[in-house]
Each structure stands twice: as C-alpha cells, then as structure tokens.
Amino acid sequence: MDQPEYTRWNTVPAHLRTATQLAALDLPRQPAGPVRATIATRNPGTGRKDEFDLYDLGETRPTPATAAQLTAAAARRTTNTRTCTDCGAHPETPCTFSSGDGDGDGGRVLCGTCLHITHLRTRQAEARAAARDVTATAARLLADEHLAVLHVDYTPGEPTAGGNPRPPAAARLVAVDRTGAPFCDRTVRLTGPRTPGAPIHATDPAQTMADLAGLLAERTIVIWTPTDLDPLYDALRRLKLNTALLPEGRVNTLYPAATQWRADLDPRTGEHRGPHPARHRRPPPPPAPDGRRRRPAHRPAGQPGGDAPVTTTPPASPTPALPAPAAPAPQASTPPAVLLLDPAALTDPAERARRPAPLGLGRRHPLT
C-alpha cells in the first residue's frame, strides 16, 4: 500500500514524528519500525525544500540514554524550552522560541497551542487591516458613475438519454447601475436555432453579445467571480463567435473582496474563509431505486400526471438592440451583488448592525 505523503506540518497526524522529533522528546525515543509516511516541506534549519520520513509513535522504543545523561543534557541548555512562557504547560516536545515581544532573552518560548493562538492573533490584525482597505475601495467604486454590476443565470440544457448533463441552452444577462436600476436584461441563446431547451424569447447570440459589449465598453464592471462567464464563453466559442464581452482592465470581482471584508479566518490555518456563492442551483433529480440516476419520465401537458404547461412572455421590443426595460425588474432578478454594495451598510455602524452583512471590494481587483 502506498504511504501517505504530506506537504504541511499541520496536516500530519499527531502519532507520526520524524526521527529528530522523536529524539527531542523529554523522554527521547528512536524508530523501531518502518517509515509510515513522508512530508515534503522546507527544512527549518536550512530553509531548503526537503523530504522527511515519518514514524509511528507506537512503533518506537526508548533511546539508550540514562536518566543521569538526560539530566546533564537539560542542565546544559541555556534556555528553558520545556515550559511555555504563556500558559506554563510542560509539553513533551520542546517549545518554540518566539521573538514577538522582544529580542534575545526577552522573547518567549511557546507551546504549540500558544504559538497557534499567537499566529491567529497576528492573522486577525492583518485581516482587519485588509477589511479597512476593502471598505475604502468599495466607497471609491460606488462613487464611479459608470459602475455596472453584471449577473448571469443559465438555463440548463436538456440532459442526454442517459441522464448526463449538457451545456447551458441559454443565459440571462442582467446589468444594473450603481443605484440598482437595470439598464439591460436579455436572454441569449447559447445553442443552435434547432437545438431544444432555450426559452422561446432567447435572442440571437451574435447580435445580442455585440450590443451588450457596446453597452459595457465604458463601464466599470463588477461580477461575483471571474468564472461566472465561463459557460457563456465556452458556448460562444462553440458557435465560433467573438468572446470579447467585458472591457479589459475594468473588471472587479466581488468574491475575493467579500472574503477580505468579512475577515473570517479558519481557526485551524488562519486563512480567510470565503462566503458561499449567492447562486440558487437546481437540485439534481433523486436516484432511481437501483441507485442509477435516470432521466425523469416526461408526460405531455394536460395528461394525468403530466407537466404543467409553461408560458413564456417574449420581450416587448423585437429589435436586437438592448433597450432599458420599461418597468423595473422583479426583485428576485436583481443580482445579489447590488444589495451588497450599499454605502450606508458599509460605513454606518448602526446601519451595518441592522442590515444583512454587505460585501466590500478588496485589494485584488485591478483598479486599486
């Protein structure tokens, strides 16, 4: 059986140790069994990448050192690395020297728990600073009169006879300005004209995408993630159409910004935890009794147990241009990003406590 291979120390189980770690125990031990795993990481002594063998503690034995020899070795240490400065614990492994509170003898020796807490506190301070930068960037973007928030929803293609999914049949593109007022709401067909699955009011992709690119050419664009438009671009390439939709250098993504604004850190690693995508996905059909996923049986509308007839209202204007809608779009069609770019919720503490948590924009977008 292949041995486990690790790349980070915090993922190594507690019962696996290197030969050096076994020798550094307060009651030192040595390997007595085979190598059970390896870790490829930087050598703390040289700083170079190296690979270390890991042994199971249950397959080790004590070293031949006597009690007198261990006492003499402890007396030769110039720094007490067996007692944590912060909590007073006496771990079996040496504490780690931390110079956060001073240099030389003024530093601290910390057990693994206190060292982890210190690391988390440092990361929290860095996260708070990043969140302040995010809020300032969001305010600058909201002041841009050319700001546009783009949201896309896909119409799934009809599955194959075996139940396998097909690429989206259509995409609904909604663009709103900084006040949340929509100035574009069109559904574009992503398949050939004879391929079923697209709504009847879906427009021709060539003309629609050209008009939309013209509307967004001078805009500062905000989208949730850079991959939101990947299914759209894939479909345009299959149709051999131009995929240049967004203005180069003027696209901002909300997801990394929202991650920084929340400053929510993983307590295990100290890294940012991202918010869940604000998308509603259609749940898959339940599996068949034999465990295989089958395509649901279709019955014509009007028959017992048949599907309800679907009515679709075509757009008011038959022209291929992208006019502003005559009435505001329903609230459900407004992209979630619009509600998250509320300047009052970003700046007023009382308003922020009353409203749902907004999302700011972070340092990773290209306009900072």
The tally of beta strands, per DSSP, is 13
The total count of helices amounts to 9
- The parts where pLDDT drops under 50 for at least 5 residues are 101-106, 280-368
Number of domains: 2
Strand order of the largest sheet: 11-10-9-12-13
Tell me the distance between the termini: 51 Å
Question: Which band does the percent of strand residues land in?
Answer: 15-25%
Task: Describe the protein in words.
This protein is α/β, with parallel strands linked by helices and 368 residues long. The protein folds into 2 domains: 1-76, no CATH class; 129-277 and 316-354, no CATH class. The protein has 9 helices and 13 strands. The strands form 4 sheets. The chain has a 5-stranded mixed β-sheet. The chain has a 4-stranded mixed β-sheet with strand order 1-4-5-2. It has a two-stranded antiparallel sheet with strand order 3-6. α3 (112-142) packs across α6 (254-262). The protein is elongated.
Give the key terms.
368 residues; alpha/beta; 2 domains; five-stranded mixed beta sheet; four-stranded mixed beta sheet; 9 helices; 13 strands; 18% strand
Question: Outline of this structure?
Answer:
Helix content is 25%, strand content 18%. The protein has 368 residues and is an alpha/beta fold.
Topology, element by element:
Layout: E1 5-6, E2 16-17, H1 19-23, E3 29-31, E4 37-42, E5 49-56, E6 60-62, H2 67-75, E7 96-98, E8 108-110, H3 112-142, E9 147-157, E10 166-177, E11 182-189, H4 205-216, E12 220-223, H5 230-238, E13 251-253, H6 254-262, H7 336-340, H8 343-347, H9 349-354
Parallel strand pairs: 1-4, 9-12, 12-13
Antiparallel strand pairs: 2-5, 3-6, 4-5, 7-8, 9-10, 10-11
Helix pairs in contact: 3-6
